[in-house]
Amino acid sequence: MRRPRIPSFLLATGLLVGGAAALALLVGFDPSRLPATLVKIALFKLMFIAAAGLLVAGAYLGRRARMRRDLTHR
Asked: Mean pLDDT, consecutive 10-residue segments, the chain of 74 residues?
C-alpha cells in the first residue's frame, strides 16, 4: 500500500518551519522591528493555518470513527 502524501508533506513543512525559526533565533532576528501590519498579517495566517489543521483533524477523526463503527456493526 502506498504511503499517503499529506502526512509526509506536513512533516516536511514542519521541519522547514522549525528550521527557519531556529535559524532566525541563531542570527538574532527581532520580529518586534517589523511593521505592525506585517505582524498582524502573520498572526492571521497562523490562525487560518491552525483552523485548517483543526478542521482536517476533526474530519479525519470523524471518518475513522465512522469506519470503526461500520466495521463493528457487520
From this structure: 68 87 92 89 91 88 84 73
Report residue 3 CA to chain centroid gap. 19
| pTM metric for this prediction | 0.57
For the record, the C-alpha cell of 14 comes out as 514542519
- Residue 39 makes CB contacts below 8 A (sequence gap 6+) with 31
Specify whether the CB–CB gap between 31 and 39 falls below 8 A: yes
Q: Find the DSSP H helices in the chain.
A: 5-27, 36-72
Q: Rounded to an integer, what distance in angstroms lies between the CA atom of residue 29 and that of residue 27?
A: 6
